[in-house]
Input
Amino acid sequence: MRRRCAGKGPPVRALAPVALMMLALAGGATAEREESGQGGLARVIASSFRARGQADLDRLRQTPMQLACSVARPDALPADAQQRIRRDALQTVRFPPDGRWLGEWQRGEKIAQSGTGLQYSDPPDAPRGGNCYGCHRLSGTEVAFGTIGPSLYRYRQRNASDADAMRRTWIRIWNTHAFNACSMMPRFGDAGILTPEQIRDVMALLFDPASPVNR
Amino acid sequence: MKPATSNSAESPLSRRAGQGPSLPCVAGPRPAKQGVRAIADRWPLAFAASALVCATVRAADPTSVYRQMLADDNPAELAVARGQELWQTPRGPKHAALTACDLGQGPGVLAGAFAALPRYFADTGSVMDAESRLVHCMVTIQGFSRPELAATPFSELGEPQTDLEVLVAYVAAQSRGATIRVPQGVPQERDSYARGRDLFYRRAGPYDFSCATCHGADGLRIRLQQLANLTRSEGARSAFGHWPAYRVSQGAVRTMQWRLSDCVRQQRWPQLIFGSQAAIDLSTYLGVLAGGGTMDAPSLRR
Output
């Protein structure tokens, strides 16, 4: 079952927290793993967090991917488990209906710079950022970039810029687990963090020859 | 970091420093704790300039220069002094001092106590960290209201430190130099570690983040902020050994539970409840991993 974390509320949100906990305990693999520490991790989690602002308790429920990837060495997961994560992720991807991959790189740069969004301290109505610079080098002139993800500087030059390259990049942004099971990168499309329009703008930041990423 | 290089000996600030009291660099003797505030009050410019001049004479890497520069006269010492006052003064509805509070080494024993927390306490039947144990003492010994203490454990930006924050600073300071030994002798302590470790790797929320997403490898950064690798002893020792800390960007002493809670906020999770078992378990995980390290808190952080 696929669950959308940040999008418009799935029906499960209406359930009471107690019911959520029972659901978590009922899931075979979840219960087995959580109770293995004897102290009852599920019970501890249920009593240790409170909903605040836009961050409701439903966020603590794990998707199958999140559960499978919650290990010290996700790269050591069995091949079939990784295969399942990749296959499930690919099925979540929705492509632009009009076939238009690229928006405006100027807006994409703003999205890449902004880390606002989905924290309980963030205004719920403010436009969300992608915080791309938190983890990636992009523009050649922005020196305050993180290193958790690979450098994307000169992205166009380092990748093809045909429709297939754009399709693959779109998938990586929408749900990167389709290529890289248990990747650390958020599922910007699948989890509803960015809108398809915003993803188009980030795509332009990566592919437009005039973008500071490629200049 | 710019502060290390941008002020030469010719700057007006440092000339002014020459007229003030002589202020030691990091390598020199530390001034008496009570003296820090007096010097800062009387010679604010000299106080600031001293740090800049000190920094220019060292050629270490910029981050350690910055940290040393800040560590020279840590404002956390003011919180420590205030915490000592609160510890010794009869307070609360029961008009009692905290000197009978047992932080794990016996009533009133503070030396090394912080370096061995969280631990199991038989009187409550639970594993508690320094912060939850201090609240327990303030409630049981002094008669303060637990809900009130738990509602405002941390000061807001620009507000005075809470009683709990300065007490944590004081208690931590009594473990400065002590070896970190978070016990694993009873099943409850081992369960706490196991849950903390599971929590550390648990991915959830709209960003799919766990603690390990950012703190799972060496040498990573978010933007320019360096991230400790908290899956290994070296990183855990540095993190555990330096909290509580005077956080320069906050202008206040912040505790380990505050640190964990602010990470959880950025994970896009709901709010980590103060004193919750999950907060204590994460501390147990870090503390056990940090075993053999040295406490040096309250420290100074960005």
